């Protein structure tokens, strides 16, 4: 199991979320309050953020200024990502990043690997595609053989080409990318893509009689969309809060009022300038 969070609102330091808050992500890594199936989240951590001030609709395809990463030009409206396989409390970069990074939209997670042998940078979240940032707290039990082949068979070449590691979370993300690309004309593009992805995967797992946990969070820099759902099991905890900003987290970051538990089998859409919506999944 893992702990995840997302923030959308006025520009905020990364350190407030991962280090300074009373029940920050660092504290949740070694003293989680609501985690089942594990004690600590010591198998790496990561954060993704959108460049400060980039809250307007992007000019798609514009590369001014241009950054080069992994041999390709990256538009400045794509998020930045930092990943480490160290426990968050042991990463000497954490505090410096926390001071330096500021953004209106941040997604982060600490990891407790289902398979200890899977600890690797390629398996550390958040995952990124174009403007999307994604984190998943859960697993698909026994994702091998027929079920894995069936899931891979649903992916386009683009989504399949994104896979770099060997986790079930990355396959969930790949399926979501396909749904998001297909919904480019839909005003509720991100919410519809997220819901349809969880519904498809739940159906596959139910048909194969497999346990699966689908608590996840995805952002495009303009909104946060999260799901709390499971197949043949209880979904991990997830909360939402809306005050001057939108917050979604596995556990409340403080004891202030306003944190609302998200019911099982629900989707939440949170924006900085509007009340959040909680919808039942079909």
Main attributes?
282 residues, alpha+beta, Glutamine Phosphoribosylpyrophosphate, subunit 1, domain 1, seven-stranded antiparallel beta sheet, 17 strands
Strand order of the largest sheet: 5-2-6-1-14-13-15
DSSP E strands, number: 17
Reading off the top of the CATH hierarchy, the class is best stated as Alpha Beta
Order of helices and strands: EHHEEEEHEEEHHHHEEEEEEEEE
- Profile the largest sheet: 7 strands, antiparallel
CATH topology: Glutamine Phosphoribosylpyrophosphate, subunit 1, domain 1
Strand content range: 25-35%
Instruction: List unreliable stretches of 5+ residues.
Output: 54-69
Can you describe what's shown?
The protein is α+β, with helices and mostly antiparallel strands and 282 residues long. It has a single domain (3-57, 66-280), classed as Aminohydrolase, N-terminal nucleophile (Ntn) domain (Glutamine Phosphoribosylpyrophosphate, subunit 1, domain 1, 4-Layer Sandwich), CATH 3.60.20. It has 7 helices and 17 strands. The strands form 4 sheets. It has a 7-stranded antiparallel β-sheet with strand order 5-2-6-1-14-13-15. A 6-stranded antiparallel β-sheet has the order 7-8-10-11-16-17, covered by helices on one side. The longest helix has 19 residues, at 189-207. The two termini are 25 Å apart. The model is unreliable at 54-69 (pLDDT under 50).
